[in-house]
Amino acid sequence: MPILLDLQSLSFPAANVAVFQREAPLVLEVGFGDGGFLTSVAQAHPEWNFIGADVAHASAARAFKRVRRAGLSNVRLYHGSGLFLLRNLFCDGSLYRVYVNFPDPWYKKRHASRRLLQASFFELLSARLELGGKLLLTTDSEPYFRQALILAHSSGYYRVTETTPPSAALRTKYATKWSAAGRNFYHAAAQKHAGHPSQIPPQIRKELGMHHALLNGSIPAVTEFDKVIHHFADGHLVVLDVMRMIGQEGLVFIVRSHEPELEQELFIQLRPARRAQADLLLSVMNLGKPLATRGSSEAVRAVCHWLTQRGLTLCGTYY
Ligand SMILES: C[S@@+](CC[C@H](N)C(=O)[O-])C[C@H]1O[C@@H](n2cnc3c(N)ncnc32)[C@H](O)[C@@H]1O
Prior knowledge:
With 319 residues, the chain is α/β, with parallel strands linked by helices. It has helices spanning 16-20, 36-44, 57-70, 82-88, 119-128, 142-155, 173-180, 294-308, and strands at residues 26-30, 49-54, 75-79, 95-101, 129-139, 158-163, 186-192, 212-216, 228-232, 235-244, 251-259, 262-272, 280-284, 313-318. The protein folds into 2 domains: 7-192, Vaccinia Virus protein VP39 (Rossmann fold, 3-Layer(aba) Sandwich); 212-318, no CATH class. The longest helix is centred in the C-terminal third of the chain and has 15 residues, at 294-308. It binds S-adenosylmethionine. The site of S-adenosylmethionine has 21 residues, from β2, α4 and α7.
């Protein structure tokens, strides 16, 4: 069973059954940390489907090992933002529960906009939760907790109930850490009782084929490289570097693209075209399983622009 969520194989939004090959209540945990909570709830509820998201590489690596050790087939992990999944992956009315345990509190006033639980979060969540579905929040930060409850309540989509935290939420890594420091804990359920009136469609358009281009000319010699910054609607990218391939003719461009809640590292190769319509093929390598989005399209466009400035001519584009 795959543990990592394979976004390349899914459409946006994707049906629950396309991810798990079965219909079952769908549960999301945003910020799973070391994966201890996710693993224990998934063990306790084999009849539910779980997706966990965490932006930290170390968290993803630890949780992966835990889920693998536990032999769970009802969990998929995503190394990236839970907001990205909420916006793009989940269908409206598809989520049964969302867990958020000890979200980063961002105490400083100037960092408050980095908090996960904003008014826009509650609005988006109200579209993706099923009627009666719940957000379960546990935290040690009373100011954040109070602010989140006000936002949930004032959105008009939730019935908010404050209770003592369930024992499972008090066994997470951060719960253990803050318990040792003598902190108090706060817990609430925000249950959806009304839906968002207008649709909130996916923001990232995922395309079926990966972007590429055909060029005529010869592979340029690269002695130095100045990074290229390219802006596009809703995002930007940086062509960071270019390298010559060893043992074969070709160049590889390293690109970092930034789209809403999605950061991708793209490796774009230029090499002799196997078929004779053109001299060279510029294509996105499948390293790191990139998604074909506006970002990858713009990355191919930016590299094409760089190459045409060095005398190559474009003779076919797919971007
Ligand atoms: C304070 S830790 C809590 C971890 C865990 N829930 C626990 O209780 O031990 C917050 C976690 O949220 C993750 N995180 C922050 N923003 C996120 C986002 N937008 N999507 C997914 N994870 C996020 C961080 O990487 C971190 O692992």
